[in-house]
């Protein structure tokens, strides 16, 4: 009975999130039609589900706030796609909030991953913005900081997965978090490269799927860890 009860709660939340994501897929014709509010509904559902979890108030509010913030950023981006830097600034706040929710778990820094992320960040910035800083310095700075925040989050999550957590012994949760943030980094990189580097056509479907998978992984990571 205890095992069934333990499994039913996450399964129910997964069903709710998956069902809402499926509804968005149907209502937007396979993520092809713009529907800003519909698009962020599953993430808002994650924020509400977070508030039902049994975790400390600080972690609960940080996690829920991160989902609400990213929903706001993506909603505004869907309305004004040319103002990418504003969306990235808001989404960066979301990642900072989520980082704060698990940062105390870091036992030791994964230096190899940190080095790889620094090199990755410099490569993307150079590829996309090498000739643009003088013409659009504010946008370049905002987008670079956005990628930097996500890279820092990836390093933190990877360090918890690689060396274990100070607070919990949830290796699977740490892996979920690490993969989720890597997917977030890939999504943000793809959006920025699409605007300033190589053009990706018909990428909305792949980005939407990756985005929903990433947010689900981040939710279940904290749900299992705390």
Written overview of the protein:
It is built from eight helices and no strands. It is mostly helical.
Compact summary:
It catalyses: a 1-O-(1Z-alkenyl)-sn-glycero-3-phosphoethanolamine + H2O = a 2,3-saturated aldehyde + sn-glycero-3-phosphoethanolamine; a 1-O-(1Z-alkenyl)-sn-glycero-3-phosphocholine + H2O = a 2,3-saturated aldehyde + sn-glycerol 3-phosphocholine. The protein has one domain.
The averaged pLDDT comes out at 88
Structural class: mainly alpha
The radius of gyration computed from the alpha-carbon positions, rounded to a whole number of angstroms, is: 18 Å
What pattern of helices and strands is seen along the backbone?
Answer: HHHHHHHH
Strand content: under 5%
The amount of helix comes to over 70%
Low-confidence stretches: 1-8
Largest sheet: none
Count of helical regions: 8
The N- to C-terminal Cα distance equals 22 Å
Given the C-alpha coordinates, what overall shape results?
globular
The tally of strands reads: 0
What's the structural domain tally?
A: 1
